[in-house]
Hints:
By secondary structure, the chain is of the alpha/beta class. 29% of the residues lie in helices and 27% in strands.
Amino acid sequence: MAWHCDGTTNQEMVAKLKDAGILTTDKAESAMLAVDRARYCHEPNPYLDRPRTIGYNVTISAPHMHAYALSILSDQLFDGARALDVGSGSGYLSACMGVMVGPRGRVVGIDHIPELIEMSTKNINEDCTDFVKEGRVKFVVGDGRLGYPAGGPYNAIHVGAAAETLPQQLIDQLAPGGRLICPVVAMEEYKGLQELLQVDKNSDGTVVKKKLMHVSYVPLTDPASQLRLIAIKS
């Protein structure tokens, strides 16, 4: 994995992701230009191409992973589409999805830490001021492994944390023609080895799975386990 897309501005970061062949669609590029990462990453030098802490033992993913995700899901993030962002964190990817689905689209960001939902709502209200008000993007507290059936079925689902196994509930909430991407632990005894899986649901409801790349994400878990991890590290 190349980690060479650092920028001093949002525009420079996006340009480097495009030059590296990671950001591969015009729609994804436009979304990342429209959503300033600094509004969602409050650490110094927010345009560095690396994960950054946002609290609660959670990170905002490196820009190259967001670029991969938006590029892979570009066809499913069409005007008027429905999308689900599991482990929405500080709200960055949900905002990018909101740009891509347009005013008629609907994006749900779900996280099990209420403080992160408050943070993401504040961030997006300051950056994309009309998205929440017009219902284009909303954030909910919940167990992302179970999805959010009330907002589905979804054309695109992104999972921003590594699952022990691919959650069937998320596959069930995919619309025909929909696509899900999710990091999944590849080996039980070595949880640091994860694979990013792409799951496509055909028009007849059949499902096709494809391994995309090796990745490293924080675990997709329940709130109690998340808070225990925080306590252990503090």
